[in-house]
Amino acid sequence: MANEPKYVFDKKKIDDELLGNIGNAIMKEQEQELNLFRAGLEADGADDDFSAQDKRELEQLLSLVHKLEKDVMIQRVTFAMNENDRQKRLATSSATDKGESFKKTVASQECGTGCCSCCKCFSCCLKNCFRCFDSCLSILSTCCCMCLIGSCSDSCLKCCKCCISYPVKYQFDFYNWGGTINTKNNEGYFFSVFDDDMLKWYHPATTRDDIRSIVKQATQDNKRIRCFGSRHSWSKFFGDDNTVLISMLPLIPALLNFDFLPEKYPDLELSQKDGDLNYLSMYEKSGILTVGGGVTNEMIRKYLVNSNSNWQIPMNVILVEVTAGGVLSMICHGAGKENPTISDIATSVEFVDPKGEVYEVPGTLPNGQEILKSASGAFGLFGVVTKLSLQLEKKAIAVYAPAKVPLDKAIPPPGSTSVDDIKAFYNTCEMTYSEFFWFPGSDQVWVNSWNTTNQLPDGKKLTLEYPDEKQTWVQEVRNYLFGQFRWMNSQLGRYSWWRTLRSNLAMLWMPDYSNDPVYTPKQNAIHFGRGIHNMKVRDTEMEIPLILEGSNEEDYVAWDRVRAFWSAAVEYVRNDLNVDLTLEMRLMGGSEVTLSPQKGNKYTLSIEILSMAPTSLNEDTWNPKWQVSMQGFYNLMCTVAEQVGIPPLMVRPHWAKETTLSVKELRQVFEPQNFSIFNSHLSTVAQSRGLTRKDFFQRFSNKHLDALFRASP
């Protein structure tokens, strides 16, 4: 085992003579030794021959190295002072009152980026000043640095230990979760924070101010900005090459091309401080939930289930690992014929604009409520979402009773003569939540449909956590292991028996509580599946009108149309081995969001096909086949729509999923006038900020969005 390093830094011994003469040389020597020592420790830690006790001792020594490196950083800031500035400052100093003379010297000076005056340091606002750290060093400014010496040094150094947060730029290649997007030479930012123990590295942003500093720096560098969260989207809305990418999640798996992503992130807990990206506040009187853009669905679920709140989110996506800002921006949805999209229940959204300033919609904007219909589903074009508020509904208990039902009974085909089966299906469609899964090759459908109640039946207990800790662990591991089957698809995917085998295995794992429902908070039933993110798939989804808004058609007409779409989809999937995972279907309401796929509908059918084959090692072979499958499925849904009296042009793709439609076709199905409305709303916002719509696109768009919205960067 190596000995502890011989250098222990004592900040009280730092004086101007040391700084001016030999300090910098000694610092370099000490830093080199620390680097060598750290490398030795890390090499020892990788040695399999070391005992557990030895490794614990190594961890303790590494912790010590972290502390020493923190001291190195604090001193390096001081050493960065320009010699002339130092001499000028010393010449005006007196032994009795250094602090006051410092203040006189620098009261009018500002950091390189003009963010703050150094006199703020004397009020111990070092955190605000220190965000210009890189600029200060690059111009050898005395700003921020000089306050580390003199009468205020003790208080400022105290700030250093707990407050300093500065951005560190890094470059990386980006892969989205589904493997459909790969961009090069992107820039990200980590923010390092000094605490009492060691230097910790967090995710690229933890606060609204962090986002503002990133935007300001990107503007200075003339870089575009896109957010990527947990990377869970297949669309072309991520950044291009050489883009600044922002994630509000803390772990490396959120940044790299990892399959496994936990539902709970260490070091990410809810905050009550407005301005934190993991902020949460519940206004019980009106049922308004306000959360930071980086709050995950799991954090929201856990809060609503375990708090004394009387409210719940009426709908959501199944995934718990994704962020609220991402779910809102991509106009995501859940299920239930009365439920619109998440974006429809937004009451306000806070953004950071191209200047790095904060604004809110509707705020005080003229026609703010109409603008909100665009801002609540804006794909990042209104700026970076740092906070949002949602209108919740009164809390209820889900009677969670998913069932395994024979294929021809779950959704009776159009030619069925079984009145009982048809009535049962109609009743299922009318439930609070209606969802159907078919694994190709299985002879059953997993019907995940349920109602809610306000009172428990006699003898029944409320299951506060569903799935519980054990069930969650099983689901996460199962989905991860099941996802590893994809490497076999390159060899076995062309055989129907292989698809049937996996489908029956998947169906075996699905729960059936039809005879013994689980009574659990609605939030749990919405997020019934965990670890879904750990099984990499390809996915295309269509949103299809069942009844148009303002129509006098009866509800049963909509449910008969569902039978027609489902029957056609089953036959298509049955004959296409590229669709080797599942056919999913959800029933939901319409939407008022400007560019929502559900806009103009009373009821909407959300239907999608998923495949693991194109994510195999032999992707070059499978990917072209998957493109053909997606196009064929879209064409089929348009054909059925025309047959049942629905305009084919209202069959629209989900923005977050894959599509084969070109920009021209997307503009056609989402209607050109809706893009004009969106652009008009963004122009109004830009004008209120002293900017133009072009400024927003220059900072927050990409090439695909430029073409879609016909904007010149």
Q: What's the topology here?
A:
Elements: H1 16-20, H2 23-45, H3 52-79, H4 83-91, H5 98-106, H6 126-130, H7 133-138, H8 153-162, E1 165-175, E2 182-194, E3 199-201, H9 208-220, E4 225-227, E5 244-246, E6 280-283, E7 288-292, H10 297-306, E8 311-312, H11 324-329, E9 346-352, E10 358-361, H12 368-375, E11 384-391, E12 393-394, E13 397-400, E14 403-406, H13 407-410, H14 419-429, E15 435-438, E16 444-447, E17 451-453, H15 469-483, H16 486-492, H17 496-509, E18 518-521, H18 522-526, E19 538-548, H19 555-574, E20 582-588, E21 601-611, H20 619-643, E22 652-653, H21 663-669, H22 672-688, H23 693-700, H24 703-709
| CATH third-level topology of one domain | Vanillyl-alcohol Oxidase, Chain A, domain 3
Rg (C-alpha, Å): 29 Å
Q: What is the name of the CATH class of one domain?
A: Alpha Beta
What structural class should be given to the helix and strand makeup? Answer: alpha+beta
First and last CA, distance: 58 Å
Strand line-up across the major sheet = 14-16-15-20-21-19-22
CATH hierarchy: architecture of one domain:
3-Layer(aba) Sandwich
> Helical percent range?
25-40%
Strand segment count: 22
What number is the mean pLDDT? 79
Query: What are the segments in which pLDDT stays under 50 over at least 5 consecutive residues?
Result: 1-29, 72-164, 194-202
Relative strand content: 15-25%
> How would a textbook summarize the main sheet?
7 strands, antiparallel
Silhouette: globular
Number of helices: 24
